[in-house]
Amino acid sequence: TETEVYVDQCDYVRGLKEIMLSHEKLKQKDVLFTHEEIGQLRSLSGQLLWVTSQTRPDCSFDSCVVSNYGNKPTIRNIIRANKAIRKVKSMTSSRLRFSNLGESKKLKVLTFADATHASLPSGASQGSFIVFLAGNNMISPITWQSKKISRITKSPMASEALALVEGADAGFLVASVVQEIFTLPSLPQVQCYTDN
After folding, report:
1. pTM attached to this predicted model
2. What separation in angstroms does the CA of 56 have from each of 34, 51, 92, 179?
3. Quick one: three-class SS letters along the chain?
4. Is the confidence at residue 72, as pLDDT, over 80?
5. Per-residue pLDDT reduced to its tens digit, 142-181
């Protein structure tokens, strides 16, 4: 429409394929992958990362988990990866909406961050954030991320703090880009939120 832009990857998502396993393999959940299955899992992980980094922030956690199975994944991990594919495909009409946000000088940046402690298969923590641009009583998602936290954390609060720092950095970058695009005299306000 004239005041909104929609983005989706519906055609790409429809083309995603699960890794097929025989009934025999499904019964042996802790058996290590073959070399060929590891290649299939890496390919599937890359496809999930592409979708979740472009148009599906709602599936980012699952994508992060799949991408962190390590060098010795098991059949159990393929089952989880296939479940992530089914989740992405279950909402085939999912799309992002970017609305007219009104006057550029009234824009502000909202960042929401969250983390889980020691939740990934390796025992590492996972952190995520999403950054919105807000104005005219509307918001539009600009960037998001869900990934393994690069440092080892000793508590849930430490994981949450690191995720918030990552989100704040991304929010500041978005504010800087907005200031430059619209030649604003100062940075738009950046507000950061966490549930911890």
Report:
1. 0.84
2. 30, 6, 11, 27
3. CCCEEEECCHHHHHCCCCCCCCHHHHCCCCCECCHHHHHHHHHHHHHHHHHHHHCCHHHHHHHHHHHCCCCCCEHHHHHHHHHHHHHHHHCCCCCEEEECCCCHHHCEEEEEEEEECCCCCCCCCEEEEEEEEEECCEEEEEEEEEEECCCCCCCHHHHHHHHHHHHHHHHHHHHHHHHHHCCCCCCCEEEEEECC
4. no
5. 999 999 898 888 999 999 999 999 999 999 999 999 999 9
